[in-house]
Amino acid sequence: MEFVEYADAEMMMIDLADKLASELRAAIAADGRASLAVPGGTTPGPVFDTLSAISLDWDKVHVMLTDERWVPETSERSNTGLLKRRLFTGHAAAAHYLPLYAEAERPEEKLDDLEQSLAPHLPLSVVLLGMGADMHTASIFPGADRLEDALRGDGVLYPMRAPGAPEPRITLSAKVLNDAMRRHIVIIGAEKRAALEKAQGLDPEEAPVAAILKGATVHWAEG
Ligand SMILES: O=C1O[C@H](COP(=O)(O)O)[C@@H](O)[C@H](O)[C@H]1O
């Protein structure tokens, strides 16, 4: 794992967006196309603002979330809603979106269809992940019902229910995240830095982020 510390969060977001853009360009140059997975939550909005304004062949990029909350896009909890507001504007509006949500009461009902839509775009060219202070990443939470499957299974997606998550989730598996060509994690603040340090000494069952740290670049700023 490489740890990059920035002077402030604003600089970090700009540098990170530039890095993601150059990795997408390199993937497009090599393969004629690229796939990108990005997190939801409260952290990545500013990365999306900068990335969306960067010129590249966005029509050759397929974008998916690392995980989704099983709520409609109109919900303020929807990670898709965040992407539509902050990423798919400007140049990035030309990218192709692969949703992890479809209208159904339970993620299990749509799992096969969603996995089939992702399959042609794997392995991922680039993945950006977030991390919670409880050491979850994507929606792979400590104490979750499908934790073992998401950490060790061969599947692409897993439904997930966890004490730390107010609604059902769907998440890319650790295998899909680890198979990505480039893997970045973005975190802000002292609490998350301490959580990351703690996670390095724990098993993934206790600290799921530990399962995807090897080979990843962690981007951190105090605030
Ligand atoms: O619920 C989620 O949490 C994590 C971390 O979110 P943050 O608000 O602490 O940045 C996020 O990476 C994930 O995509 C999201 O669904």
Automatic annotation (TrEMBL):
One of its GO terms (biological process) is carbohydrate metabolic process. It catalyses: 6-phospho-D-glucono-1,5-lactone + H2O = 6-phospho-D-gluconate + H(+). Keywords: Hydrolase. Its EC number is 3.1.1.31. GO terms for molecular function: 6-phosphogluconolactonase activity. Residues 8-220 form the Glucosamine/galactosamine-6-phosphate isomerase domain. It comes from the Bacteria. Pfam families: Glucosamine_iso. Gene3D superfamilies: 3.40.50.1360. InterPro entries: 6-phosphogluconolactonase_DevB (IPR005900), 6PGL (IPR039104), Glc/Gal-6P_isomerase (IPR006148), NagB/RpiA_transferase-like (IPR037171). Pathway: Carbohydrate degradation; pentose phosphate pathway; D-ribulose 5-phosphate from D-glucose 6-phosphate (oxidative stage): step 2/3. The keyword Hydrolase applies. NCBIfam families: pgl. Hydrolysis of 6-phosphogluconolactone to 6-phosphogluconate. Belongs to the glucosamine/galactosamine-6-phosphate isomerase family. 6-phosphogluconolactonase subfamily. This is 6-phosphogluconolactonase. The gene is pgl.
